[in-house]
Amino acid sequence: RQRLAALEGGAPNKGKTPVKLSPQNAVNTTGTIGLASPGDVVEKLARDGFVAINDWGLDIEALAAEVNGHIEDALVRRSAALAREARKPPRHVTPNRPGKAKKKGHGRRLLPGKAFSKLGGTVNYVKELKHLQPLLKNGTVLDVLAAYLGDDARIDGHVALRLMNGLASPEQYFSGHWHHDRCGSRLKMFVFMHDVDEIGGRCTRVARASHRTLFWSYNSPSESRYTDKFIAENYEDVCMVGKKGGGFIFDTNSIHKGEVKGTRERTVVILEVNKGGKTAEMIKVKGKRPCPSPGQHMIKIPVKTGPLAKAARNFGKR
């Protein structure tokens, strides 16, 4: 705890109560140009590790209809798969004896109820989203991302995610634990498909200014998880809330979590932005790696300062 405080340049913020992001901390992006004050966005990202966006300037009704349609289709396919699984006869097996090698496929099939409880918490869509394209080509947004991460940064991919009412425990959604993403500094942009409130809304929670921490280990997921008690004693817990069509940007080196308990489902589109050099090195690593994230639609759009035409010409070349 003292080490974390020292690395952040001050004493930990003890006794802080959770707060939600106020409109005064949000940045308006209404209109087709994009962000009203790019410098303000970068400044707040550097200070807090996050910044709220009131309006991404998208046709949110069209995007929400597209996203919700794909997710509903995925839920239909999931229900059909679970029904087929439920009709299969259970496999009766004898437990392995000491000294005997385990046979391939040896084990009991999950009962339908258990299968649903594990699969019923989240659903995502990982293919192209037509009505998200204007955000990917917004020159001002690209300039903000480059100003924070550098000219070699790129938007690696995106995913539509819904946290459902079947979600009740971090055991169903590993990101429901307080954690950092083990990637160092990178950005994620969230676009809300509906209003997101703190009470019952399953918001993302971020520990303010924790992105400035050099963590002891980036090696394994278990070493990047933190308890509620530790966060409450050391950080200000901020709930990322906002209106439909808005959202937020945050540095995933911040300690954060997705709230699992709630009374309403939450549907968002998440875009991931990495430094190009780091991505090039990470993809050489065998096995599981934290970045770029698996399970997203890969687009590899370069983030460069300057005219929008430059980004458009280079679309997908990296």
Q: What are its keywords?
A:
four-stranded mixed beta sheet, 9 helices, globular, 318 residues, alpha+beta
Describe, in plain words, how this protein is organized in 3D.
The protein has 318 residues and is of the alpha+beta class. It has helices at residues 2-7, 38-48, 60-87, 112-119, 133-136, 139-149, 228-234, 276-282, 308-313; strands spanning 19-20, 26-27, 50-53, 122-125, 153-163, 178-179, 187-192, 204-207, 225-226, 237-240, 247-251, 256-258, 266-275, 297-302. The strands form three sheets. Strands 2, 3, 4, 5, 7, 11, 13 and 14 form an eight-stranded mixed sheet that branches. A four-stranded mixed sheet has the order 1-10-8-12, with no helix packed on it. 36% of the residues are buried.
Shape, principal axes of CA atoms: globular
Amino- and carboxy-terminal Cα gap: 40 Å
What value does the Rg take, in angstroms? 21 Å
Counting DSSP E segments of at least 2 residues, the number of strands comes to: 14
Tell me the structural class. alpha+beta
- The parts where pLDDT drops under 50 for at least 5 residues are 1-34, 101-118, 306-318
Outline the fold blueprint.
Layout: H1 2-7, E1 19-20, E2 26-27, H2 38-48, E3 50-53, H3 60-87, H4 112-119, E4 122-125, H5 133-136, H6 139-149, E5 153-163, E6 178-179, E7 187-192, E8 204-207, E9 225-226, H7 228-234, E10 237-240, E11 247-251, E12 256-258, E13 266-275, H8 276-282, E14 297-302, H9 308-313
Briefly summarize what is shown.
By secondary structure, the chain is of the alpha+beta class.
